[in-house]
């Protein structure tokens, strides 16, 4: 299907459902990682940083999943500009959070670890969040599809042409300036 062709609402709803399903799977994984990190807390150099990273993404992914579900449920009643804007913002936020994944790798993975056996777990945490953020970037396409099926916006209202006599004369003649 061409990007310029209008996409049926059902297909957009399906796409949002897929993103939500991915997000829910990721949430389960992140929560499991949270428990694993808690069990390995003594073996990690900075367990607080790992827990904060996981907590941030549990919240981020959860909010995005909720938005996908809500917008998917609202779309059959008719698309709105606000829905497209929210999806575009989610995609933009996901792209921006890629940097957080890189910082996590630099702080917690790409260095000698006290217990090397934890490197695969930390790497899996990083890859899981990165892959979910990449999937959320697809929401920008969903926003584009919604915008394509939105009715055209009405032209802006013409300004009121009724003006009083004083305003009319002041448009044609400059007010008299006194030199003091």
Rg is 26 Å
Biggest sheet record: none
Helix content: 55-70%
How many strand elements?
A: 0
Number of domains: 1
The CATH topology name reads Four Helix Bundle (Hemerythrin (Met), subunit A)
Low-confidence stretches at least 5 residues in length (pLDDT < 50)? none
Overall pLDDT level: 89
- What proportion of the residues form beta strands (DSSP E)? under 5%
Structural class: mainly alpha
Indicate the CATH architecture.
Up-down Bundle
Helical stretch tally: 6
- The level 1 CATH classification is Mainly Alpha
Order of helices and strands: HHHHHH
Q: Give the termini separation.
A: 74 Å
Tell me, what's the shape? Answer: elongated
Task: Describe the protein in words.
The chain contains 6 helices and no strands. The chain is mostly helical. It has one domain: Four Helix Bundle (Hemerythrin (Met), subunit A), CATH 1.20.120. Helix 1 runs antiparallel to helix 2 and helix 2 runs antiparallel to helix 3.
Overview in brief:
With 180 residues, this protein is an all-alpha fold.
